[in-house]
Structures are given as structure tokens and as C-alpha cells.
Sequence to fold (691 residues):
Amino acid sequence: MKLHIFLSFLLLSLSSCLENLYPPLIITGEVTNIDKDGAVFHSKITDLGNDGIIQFGFVWDTIHNPTIEKSEKYIFHTPAEVASYEANISAGLQSNKTFYVRAFIQNTKVTTYGEETSFTSLGGKLPEITYLSTVLGNVNDTLVIAGKNLSTRSIIVKINRITAEIIKSNQDSIYIIIPPTLTQKTSAITITKLNQIISAKDSFTLISPIVSSIGSNLGTYGDIVTISGKHFQENKSTVKVYFDNILAPFQIINDQTITSIVPSELNKVNCKISVVMNNQKTESIDTYSLLPVEITDFSPKISLTGGLITIKGSHFSPIVSNNKVYIGGVLAKSLSVSKNALTVSLSLQDTAVYESRNAIVKVDVGGNINTSNVKLLINDKWFRRANTPSGFATEQKLCSTCNLFFDNYYANCFVIGKTAYIGLNNKKDFWAYDTDKDKWRKLNDFPGMNRLFGSGFVYADKIYFGCGLSGYYSGNQSTLNDWWEYNTKTDSWIQKKNFPIATHSSIGFSNDDGYFMSNGYTYTYNKSPEYFTFFLNAWKYNQANDSWNNETIGSWIDYESIGMNFWIPCKSFGNQIFANLGVAEVYKYTDRMYIIDTKTNTMKSIADYPLNVNKSLISLYINGKVYIRKNAMGELDLQEFNYYDPVSNTWKFTKIDVYSPLRFGIAFEVGNIGFVGLGESNQIYEFDPNR
Fold:
């Protein structure tokens, strides 16, 4: 029973729909008057149906059954009546092609087509543009192009070479949307059909904003600025406000007024304020300026690198990274900011080279720069000095992915006053480093042969240098004994009498007793009881007559032969020399240490050094303490110095807080300040143990 009721209801509903659907009817006539300018289409409306007519006309195409959705069309602008109609058609016709034509009539429910007819075209007319509905407007506006023979398909409309969206078209009008990407203020409008380009005689112009004035020329972040002008409401959705190139928050008050907020991202002290509408940008005539940044104080006044500094003041940028803080010429890392305080951390010395320990504190906000009247003291024990000049050493890389290092191996160093004279390591280069001014200066080249392991000492204001090994990297090696004098006042070299023996293992040193070049030792053997007596030998230099005298400067007894082949004077001062007993076997080094008194020619055994020492050690004498560092052959001992404590007769560890390898490097002292560096780097560090 339920099924019968449902079917009856469905049949009644379908019958009702069919009774209401009473379509209009139209007949397609023959095409006449075919010529090179087009043809005449004919139709006849025979019934208007039972619903209002929306449009009627013709459709045509080179394929069968053209439709109003896909084909060319012509629409009558008169009300539909039961009558005959004709139209002169020129649009979209090409000569010697067959076109299929149908009349159509359309109401709100159905489109009715007449029977299809065909003809062979002899040609048609190109489109014409007669006028534009407006020549001044906005992006996204609708623009009507009026004309004749306007095609309704396969037509391209461009505004300044940008293809516009066509939303509606017929034979005498095309409706387009002004492209939102249009940036050209005034643009040509063209229609392209069948590779023919037709240009409108009038151009289209975008409405631009006008900025006449800004309410305030000076302020800071978050301030409200009033912008006066015109046309701000012409196309509100496209309006933007910029300070320089920074987008700013704003509000359109009326067509002549905008209020905007100075954006936090602004990072330029002086800028123009601009209003953009319709992709047209207008800048203010007046310049807007940020108030100068102020520094009232900072703390602490003494810090280590890596430490935090808080700067008090005003007019900081709300964007942390836009506050550039330079301490001693080095950019610090900005960590946090508030309205009146800025916190930064001092850069570590792995990359930072500070101008001075007494560092100038400078804040730069968008080009507004202020410098504190008080300096910050950087109080690290180890403080990086200026890198060596580019000409001092050669950059080296073992592989494409390896870290860069500098060829500064085995440089010689001599100190006179506050200047260190450095170089002569298989090169003729010689440089002066002013420890007070932290400046490098190239000196006259060494006139002798290039050599490694040359040695010498300072005598008054002169440097004496010689011996060593030539041809180290060539395979054709030669031990040298030439001897040279360098005059620091005249920056000149002269050759002196040769050293008595050719050697590359002698080490020069001087103390209160004179000027020496060590040349190893001799020994005697006592059979019963069995022991060895070792005598340390050195040549003492007489500057007055340019002569050498061989002397024994110490001796000791050893009850077993250890076969040493040289000894190492580690550091010399006063009448004393801190010495290591040298090499026991090839590539085996000793840790035994002695203090030699050159005035009494005696030796005193002291605590063994914590590590075996090799010939390339570096040492310092500061505040009555001797600091010795075994020259690192690997990574494990790169960061250690040991100093001798005479009270406890022990060697004590102190860390080397540097960021460069010191293998084959140098060390020297000026007063109570030590200097360490070079080797495989181009860096020099100051060491002040009093900090």
C-alpha cells in the first residue's frame, strides 16, 4: 500500500512540472548577403513561452551545434516579440571557412535553439573600440569597452600588457576587471583577435593617493603620526602605509586623513612616509626622523667576554636585532630589549678582535648612534690582539673541507722595549709588533739565506741572529754558521763574523751574565764507581770585538747514560736559566728540569715538568714565575701552560684560554704581560695573570 501511494505522488509531481514547462520557440533562417564584410543572419520567434525572455539572438561556430556558452554570439537589445529578426554579422568570420549558425532564445528556465544552418564565409570586419566607460579608476573595478564587431570568444583584452579577466561580452561591449597586479599609473588598452591588435584611443589611469603633509616629523616607535592628503577612500582595500619600506599599522579616518603607528621594524633613522593605493606609491615631501638613541648608564663596568651587559637609556628599537651594540669595535649579541634597557652579551674571542681592553660602548639604532662616556673594561686573562697582516704568513688548506690555517711555523721573536721583532722562519720577512699600539709594521728583509731553526738574542738595541738549517723543504739541507746584526734604529742588517760552528740546534739566550748561544754538552765517564759527569757548554758573545768564547755553564752527575744529544734552555732571566735536559733518544723527550746559575756555573735539580718536553716549547717569565708550554703535537695539550712554584717545588697548571692552535708558535713577555700566538694561526693573545 505504501509503495502505491509513493508512485502516485511521483507521477502527479512529474505531470505538474511538465505542465509548467512551456518553452519559447525560434526558427533559424537562411544566411544571406554573404560578402567580405560579413553576412546577414535571419530568425523568427514563433512562441514566447510562459516565462520572461532573458535574451535572444544568434550563435555561430566552425563546428556543428554551436552554443551560447562556447561559440560566437550576437544578442538583440530589443524586447522579444513574435516576429522575424535579422542582423548584420561581421565578428569572428574568416574567409573560406564553413560556419554553422543557430538562432536561440533563452528564458529563466530553458534555452531553445533553432535548426542549424550553414554557410561559407567570405570574411568579416575587425573589432572597433569606440570608447571606454571610464578612463580613471581603481584596480578590481569593472571597465566596459564599447565598440563594434566585438568578438565574444577567443578575444584577449590587455591593460599595459597584463591580460584582463573578461566577465561578460557581446557584439558591442566587453566587461573586464582591472587587473589587481596593474602597477602602471596610465595604461594602454588593447584587444587581440585573430592575431590582430586593436588599441583604444583613450588610456586608463589608476587613481593615486596624494600625500600633502605629515603631522609630526620626529618621534619614536609606537608614536601615532597623522597623514593628510586626498583619495584615501577611493579604493580602501588596497591602501597601505609604509615608513621607508616597512609596512605600518594604520587607520583611514576619512578621504583626507590617515593615522599610522611608527612600526617596530623601522631600522632607519630618517625615512619617507608613503601611502600606497591601487599599487601607486606616493611619498611624503617631509622626512620622518627617529629620536636619537640615548645611553644613560651600563653595568657592569668590568666584564669577561661572553658576559652580559645591560645598557640603560631610551629610544631603543623594540626589535632586539635592530639594536646594534658595538663594544670595542666588535658587534655584541643583543639578547633582550625593553623601553629603557637593552641587554647584550660580549662576543667571544674565537672571531672577535677587540680594539682595546678599555672598550668603547656604542649603540646604533637605525643609524642613530650614541657612545657612552664611560668605557667597559674587558678583564679576561687572555685577550686577543690584532691579527698579523696578510703579508706576514701564507694561508694554507690541506683539503677543500679542512679548516684554514696560517704558515707561521718556528718564527723567531726578539723583544726590545715594548716592541717584538718577529719572523725569519724560512723566510726573509721581518716584522715589528708594537705591543702598546697593537700595530704591525714590516721591516727590511733579512739579507741572508732562508732558514729554519735559526737563533739569536737581543743586545741593547740590536738583534743578533744566525745559524740554522737551509733547504729544509727541498731535500738539499745545509747547516749554517753565518751571523748577522740587525739595528732596530736604522732598520738595517750587516753580516758579522761567523759563529764558531755550523749548527741548527743551538738556542740563543741572554741574562745578567752575558749573551749566549748554547751548543749542547760534553761528558766524562768514571768506571769505578760508574757514573757520568755532564758539562753544559755555551758560546758567549763579545759584541765589542765580535768574538765568541766557549764556556761551561753547568755540570751534573748521572749514574746511568741516557745518551742525550742536546739540552733546552727554557727561560733565562737574572743569573738563572730554566733548562730541560733534552732528548734521551730520537723522538723521546725528558721531563727533568734544572735551574742553572750562570754566575756560579752550578745546576740545581727541581721538580720534573708534568710532560715530556720537546725542543719547540714556548715559555714566559711574568711576576717572577716561569710559564712553560710543551709545543702541542696534537689536540690533547693545546690548552695548557704550567708554571713553577719554588715554594712547593711543583709545576702548577694554568689554562690557555685561546681559540687558535699554538703548535710551533711563539711566546714573549713585555713587563708583566705575556704574549702568545702564531704557529698555525695568524692570531696573537695577551696574557695578564694579574686579572
Q: What stands out?
A: The chain has a mean pLDDT of 89.
